[in-house]
């Protein structure tokens, strides 16, 4: 038995990482400390005002463990690794699965290339980026290869010079063919230097060169060539205009700010490379909480709460910096932050080690740099606001639509809905489908298919009875098994019963469903989705009454989506079974003709008609065939 009070006394006065766990041994929180003894003990003091989320977390702690490290820097690295591996519920987490594109110039090769890369390695290559648009990176690489006619092949040069013919790019004047030795290594390197100058933002030389070539070609009546130069000129100008100057010092830096409300935070990052803003990106941080302001608080209390909120936001910003730069291959020389962070010194040291060069964390207070940070914060606020609007619209289509349906039916609550449909072709391969919607969204992992076992012929009511009986009996058996094993966790899609059963049809289908539920002593509301003569949904059949529904409402649209989905799922399953059955060949019915002989016949005769018309002697020419089988085939087709 873990005794928290006793274990708190044993905590060492050393740096390290602590791990909080609940009764099920699930990791709740991972943190680092300069002094484990002081930091861990602080969680168990009363009335320390860390906010409701942390108070809730502390109430769930059943035990804790810790790992001692030699330094705070080691603790920071270990904390990052554990958070990334376990994603604890109460840690502020970066929601990000992005890998950013770079432009890579392979200067380690004697004849360098310009290539697209998702990783940045410590090699002799020069990297530009990261960029936020993979498409823009590919367009830029294509433009550079056209402008400077650099090679794009993987040949090893100079070893492979002259071993093969030049490729198509040489013939369309998009490569100078160093693979043929048509120019020296020094001449080729001049072209590479031009591309590097371009990537560093020096566009004027190439613009002047293209303009002169365009004019000369036009004067010489070479209009097609002039058009090529014109297009290149416009492409370079377009790239140049996208590079927005943000600073005059030409340094690499990231500008980082956030906006936070009661439940969410968005961090906005501006990427500045060589003094130019090359892109921006936003990131959501989960498990954040705002310090609430009590009713009737005076000015002094409100001021105190505002300071506490700023501290919490600084913590969120710090968590972002640690998690983001633990995963990104490129670290700029400077991070311009919105707030002072608690571990600034140790984070600077950690980033400096990762970068292999000095990194500075700065919080600008005046001038253009402060305005840039403010701009990032405003963008974060705008993004959160826009996403909230999207979320509100989505909730209208889902949760709002479910509430509309519940109101029409007079039900207090609907969360899970299940819909069923039957599909067959004149009674061939009867199948049933079960689709599940939770909170107005499809839960495809719980969809199920049923191949009808007890019904032959086109009897939709009997098929539906079998499907529903199997579904609910299976669910009752699984629930009973769980109860016997004293398990709480649900497994499979059958253990959880729906709050509403939706049948594809009116009175008949509803009555069948009600009959099954009554036989099994299950109480679930059943609603029919009634269609008109044109097979379009017109209303809901519930408790022996057809209820009208506004055809422009979100509830009606959701009912239609569910009905269409149940029908689609059944049709697809039926089609797959039917196509498998149709693969069956007429040859399967001939006695003595097994898989090997069937293959030999189709390979030799090419069509069923040729086999039908073949004589016994012609069939006997096949090595796989004997006299008895040949006679059987001839007799089969005669009959």
Description:
The protein is built from 20 helices and 21 strands. The chain is α+β, with helices and mostly antiparallel strands. The protein has 5 domains: 4-91, GIY-YIG endonuclease (3-Layer(aba) Sandwich), CATH 3.40.1440.10; 102-201, no CATH class; 253-393, 2-Layer Sandwich (Nucleotidyltransferase, domain 5), CATH 3.30.420; 405-581, UvrC, RNAse H endonuclease domain (Nucleotidyltransferase, domain 5, 2-Layer Sandwich); 586-638, Orthogonal Bundle (DNA polymerase, domain 1). The chain is extended and about 85 Å long.
What's the CATH superfamily of the largest domain, by name? UvrC, RNAse H endonuclease domain
List low-pLDDT spans. 244-248
Q: What's the level 1 CATH class of the largest domain?
A: Alpha Beta
Q: Helix segment count?
A: 20
Q: What value does the Rg take, in angstroms?
A: 35 Å
CATH architecture of the largest domain: 2-Layer Sandwich
The computed structural class is alpha+beta
Rough outline: extended
Quick structural overview:
With 639 residues, the chain is of the alpha+beta class.
Fold blueprint:
Blueprint: H1 4-9, E1 16-21, E2 27-33, H2 36-42, H3 52-60, E3 63-68, H4 72-86, E4 93-95, E5 102-105, E6 114-117, E7 126-128, H5 134-148, H6 168-171, H7 185-199, H8 204-219, H9 223-242, E8 244-245, E9 253-260, E10 265-273, E11 276-286, H10 299-327, E12 334-337, H11 344-355, E13 360-362, H12 367-397, H13 399-409, E14 416-425, E15 428-438, E16 441-442, E17 448-451, H14 460-484, E18 500-503, H15 507-520, E19 526-531, E20 537-542, E21 545-548, H16 554-582, H17 595-605, H18 608-613, H19 616-620, H20 627-638
Parallel strand pairs: 9-12, 12-13, 14-18, 18-19
Antiparallel strand pairs: 1-2, 1-3, 4-11, 5-6, 5-7, 8-11, 9-10, 10-11, 14-15, 15-16, 15-17, 19-20, 20-21
């Amino acid at each position: 038995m873990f005794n928290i009070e006793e274990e708190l006394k044993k905590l060492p006065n050393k740096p390290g990482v602590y791990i909080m766990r609940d009764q099920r041994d699930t990791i709740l929180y991972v943190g680092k400390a300069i002094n484990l003894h002081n930091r861990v003990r602080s969680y168990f003091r009363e009335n320390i005002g860390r906010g409701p989320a942390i108070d809730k977390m502390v109430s769930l702690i059943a035990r804790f463990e810790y790992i001692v490290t030699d330094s705070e820097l080691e603790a920071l690295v270990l904390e990052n690794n554990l958070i990334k591996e376990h994603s604890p519920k109460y840690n502020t987490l970066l929601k990000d699965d992005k890998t950013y594109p770079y432009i890579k110039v392979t200067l380690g090769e004697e004849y360098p290339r310009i290539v697209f890369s998702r990783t940045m390695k410590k090699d002799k290559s020069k990297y530009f980026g990261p960029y936020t648009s993979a498409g823009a990176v590919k367009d830029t690489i294509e433009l550079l290869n056209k402008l400077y006619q650099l090679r794009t092949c993987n040949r090893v040069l100079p070893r492979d010079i002259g071993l093969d013919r030049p490729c198509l790019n040489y013939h369309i004047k998009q490569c100078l063919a160093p693979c043929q030795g048509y120019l020296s290594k020094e001449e080729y390197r001049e072209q590479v230097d031009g591309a590097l100058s371009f990537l560093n933002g020096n566009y004027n030389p190439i613009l002047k060169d293209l303009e002169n070539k365009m004019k000369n070609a036009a004067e010489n009546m070479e209009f097609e060539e002039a058009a090529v130069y014109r297009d290149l000129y416009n492409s370079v100008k377009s790239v140049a205009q996208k590079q927005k100057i943000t600073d005059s010092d030409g340094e690499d830096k990231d500008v980082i700010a956030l906006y936070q409300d009661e439940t969410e935070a968005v961090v906005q990052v501006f990427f500045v490379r060589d003094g130019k803003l090359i892109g921006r990106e936003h990131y959501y941080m989960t498990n954040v909480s705002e310090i609430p302001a009590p009713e009737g608080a005076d000015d002094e209390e409100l001021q105190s709460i505002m300071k506490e909120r700023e501290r919490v936001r600084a913590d969120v910003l710090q968590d972002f910096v640690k998690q983001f730069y633990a995963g990104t291959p490129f670290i700029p020389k400077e991070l311009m932050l919105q707030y002072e962070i608690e571990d600034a010194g140790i984070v600077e040291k950690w980033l400096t080690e990762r970068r292999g060069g000095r990194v500075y964390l700065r919080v600008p207070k005046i001038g253009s740099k402060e305005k840039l940070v403010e701009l990032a914060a405003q963008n974060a606020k705008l993004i959160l606001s826009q996403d909230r609007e999207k979320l509100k619209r989505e909730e209208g289509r889902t949760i709002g639509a479910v509430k509309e349906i519940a109101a029409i039916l007079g039900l207090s609550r609907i969360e899970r809905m299940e819909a069923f449909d039957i599909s067959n072709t004149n009674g061939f391969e009867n199948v049933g489908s079960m689709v599940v919607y939770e909170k107005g969204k499809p839960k495809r992992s719980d969809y199920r298919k049923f191949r009808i076992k007890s019904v032959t012929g086109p009897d939709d009511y009997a098929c539906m009875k079998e499907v529903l009986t199997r579904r609910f009996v299976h669910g009752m058996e699984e629930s009973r098994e769980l109860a016997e094993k004293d398990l709480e966790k649900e497994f499979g899609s059958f253990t959880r019963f729906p709050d509403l059963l939706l049948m594809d049809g009116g009175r008949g289908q509803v009555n069948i469903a009600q009959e099954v539920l009554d036989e099994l002593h299950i109480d679930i509301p059943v609603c029919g989705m009634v269609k008109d003569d044109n097979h379009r949904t017109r209303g809901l059949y519930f408790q022996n009454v057809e209820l009208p529904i506004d055809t422009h409402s979100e509830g009606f649209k959701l009912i239609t989506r569910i009905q269409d989905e149940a029908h689609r799922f059944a049709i697809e399953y039926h089609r797959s079974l039917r196509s498998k059955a149709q693969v069956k060949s007429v040859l399967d019915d001939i006695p003595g003709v097994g898989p090997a002989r069937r293959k030999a016949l189709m390979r030799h005769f090419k069509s069923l008609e040729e086999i039908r018309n073949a004589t016994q002697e012609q069939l006997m020419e096949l090595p796989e065939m004997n006299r008895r089988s040949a006679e059987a085939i001839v007799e089969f087709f005669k009959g």
